[in-house]
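User: Can you predict the 3D structure for this chain?
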Amino acid sequence: MAAIILYTGTKACETGLWKELMDEASPELLDEISSLFQKSEKTAGFDIHRLRAWRAGSQIRVDFHMVLPQDLNLLEIAHEIAEVKNVLGVHYGGFVDVLVHTDPCGIS
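Assistant: Here is the predicted structure, written as structure tokens:
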């Protein structure tokens, strides 16, 4: 049994599978998401920062801060967040979990 565990662990390290198991950030995924945000009309004009993204099995996890005008009400903020989540959901076929932190414009 120990030999099987050692063999499987070694193969996971060799193939890079351990990175997914450990939820390690993916620079390629960050670049892809940044490019997607730059091309999307839904995210145009918003400052998005502190972007983190990683793969967890078949899911993609995305976490970022989005600066919005401070005069938006809660319903408008919720609408803007839903639009951004939709951009990611469509691109990744629904296999994405998105957490958005909102910051009012003028506060960092």
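The longest strand covers residues 47-56. Strands lie at 47-56, 59-68, 96-104.
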